[in-house]
Amino acid sequence: MAAEQQARTTWDRVTIARHPQRPRALDFVNAIFEDFVELHGDRQYRDDRAIIGGPARLGDQSVMILGNQKGRNTRENLDRNFGMARPEGYRKAMRLMRMGAQFRFPLITFVDTPGADPGPRSEEHGQAFAIAECIQTLTTYPAPIVSIVIGEGGSGGALAIGVADRILMLENAIYSVASPEASASILWKDAGQAPAAAEAMRISAPDLMELGLIDRLIPEPQPAHDDAPEAFARTATELRQALATLLDIATAGGETALLRERQERYLAIGSWLDASPNGNN
Amino acid sequence: MREIIFRRKPSFRTGRDDDQQSNVPDDMWRKCGGCGDLIYARELERAHHVCPRCSYHFRLSARQRIELLADADSYEPWDESLTTNDPLNFTTGNERYIERARAIAARSDNDANEALSSGRIEIDGRPLVVAATDFSFMGASMGSAYGEKLARACRRAAERGLPVLTISSSGGARMQEGLFSLMQMAKTTAAFDLLRAARLPHFSLLVDPCYGGVTASYAATADIVIAEPGARIGFAGPRVIEQVTRQKLPEGFQTAEFLLDHGLIDQVVPRAEVRATLATLIDLFVPQSLNAQQAAARLVGAGVSSGG
After folding, report:
1. What is the C-alpha separation between B286 and B291, in angstroms, rounded?
2. Which of B120, B200, B122 shows the shortest CA–CA distance to B161?
């Protein structure tokens, strides 16, 4: 098993992360939580089915759930816009974040999107503004947030529900600033270099763990779709246990400490050089 | 780049080459990216780099942007020692990212060592913190050094009770820094939370072109969002959108005026009016700076020069 994991290239993982039979956000929600009540709509314009969300229970605790939802076949994918949320999806997410904040529900998000919808209508409706407001709502969310990257963590469209106190990734999930194809065509001037780009951009869970950008890697003994449903059940159990422990830890210090720690966590992210010994000014 | 610099005078007569005061070489003409007219460089400079014929707003460096707004000699740059690192050891072909960034920083026509310059300025005596991007530095993409400079600027603004003006033009996240750069969207947003907690305003000026991770983070969550006329602003770039839809985008799509029309920004403000607009906004949102200004004016009136 270990040898098999070692041998997996980043591109192998990209392929697994995008596999049509890979479990989707709702599969995990239904396997991990009880009493999930899906809530719809942004109360302004429409319901975006690329984003799912609502309250649920984990043990004796009420939580708020958000997720990017992909389909499993063409019909489902057209319905879910291939998991690419539009502004109304992010505004629905924001509405549910505010509801979760009001009741101090821990927030658990399932990230699985190639990116935010890049269509002209999404631009007209303020895609950038909707994403930015989601990020801002999360940086000050007054209860613990755990984000789990289950498939593709694609750019700003993923980060909009991905700002968290703890970030978990399934072993074969990917998380990147731009898709390997887009990076390859921009930086290598050749979309065919996507596998090289995926490697260079270090988008795999083991790489991101090593870079300190995620907190925990959830092992997938087999790619979670290969020997379904057994593999999926194992991964879901592992996730459920991880979530229960994390939420306990994150709640322990109280709201002020939680928000301060989240702020410090994000203010510290980055890698730069400072030529002056103590930083000028 | 849509702007072309001509070093040789065109063959037709314009009769405008009589001004010897500026340090711009007198054989320099620039072609307007809007109407295509050739404009005498000094005339352009006097017009705040706005085409006198068609109002096309020429692209400016971070320093030009800041100096256009700041009172003379009031700009105090911050964190200039902070520069690009290469967390992924990123290489495309034979080119190492860190070497490319250093080469751009070392270029003689460049006055910034990263894509964002920050510091303290005054506008008619009103102090504020400014953070402006430079599109000529790797498309003003947001990487770790950019994010850290902006975060430090926010922290200092909050500590000193100053408002923040960001001037943003960007191609988005700095891809060469991978997920570190994506996370700068959250980092800069968290930094502006410090300003919000101190109840200080953030004014965001969007200039051409502004896309991706910068538009989708701090530049959009400001208390006031204004844009220069004609600036192209959005999340996805027009090329990406056209690839997806396989349709040509309508004229004026994603311009500042388009965003205003769709309820996404507060105002479109011509470059020549930005300074006055900011002065008014600062007085409305940070009344103590008005008082400080009035106090300073009184001191000057009493024959005492005010410090700091």
Report:
1. 9
2. B200
Residue in A119, A136, A275 closest to B244 by CB: A119
Write the residue in A128, A138, A163 that is nearest to B235 by C-beta.
A128
Sign of CA dihedral A75, A80, A83, A84: positive
- CATH number of the domain that residue B201 is part of: 3.90.226.10
Q: What is the pLDDT of residues A161-188, one digit of tens each?
A: 999 999 999 999 999 999 999 999 888 9
Which residues, at least 6 apart from A168, have a Cβ–Cβ distance to it below 8 Å?
A146, A147, A148, A149, A214, A215, A216, A217, A218, A239, A242, A246
Report yes or no on B283 lying in a domain.
yes
Q: Where are the alpha helices (DSSP H) in chain B?
A: 41-46, 62-69, 97-106, 144-160, 178-197, 212-215, 238-245, 256-261, 271-285, 287-301
Domain match, B49 and B70 both: no
All residue ranges of chain B with pLDDT < 70 are: 1-27, 108-110, 288-308
Dihedral sign for Cα A242, A243, A248, A252, please: positive
Q: How far apart are CA A199 and CA A58, in angstroms?
A: 36
Residues of the domain holding B31? 1-9+26-58
Beta strands in A24-90 (DSSP E): 51-58, 61-68
Could you give the 3-state DSSP secondary structure of residue B130?
strand
DSSP state of B173: B
Instruction: Kindly determine whether residue A131 and residue B235, on different chains, have CB atoms separated by under 8 Å.
Output: yes
Same domain, B54 and B91: no
Query: Could you report the predicted ipTM of this complex, rounded to two decimals?
Result: 0.95
CB of A85 within 8 A of CB of A55? no
What is the interface size between A and B, counted as CB pairs within 8 Å? Answer: 201
- Report how many domains make up chain B: 2
**Looking at beta carbons, which residues of chain A come within 8 Å of B216?**
116, 127-129, 131-132, 135, 156, 160
Write out the CATH class of domain A2-267: alpha beta
What stretches in chain A show pLDDT beneath 70? 1-6, 224, 226-227, 250, 277-281
Give the residues across from B84 on adjacent strands. A272
Q: So where are chain A's domains?
A: 2-267
Of the candidates A71, A17, A7, A6, the one whose C-alpha atom is nearest the C-alpha of residue A224 is A17
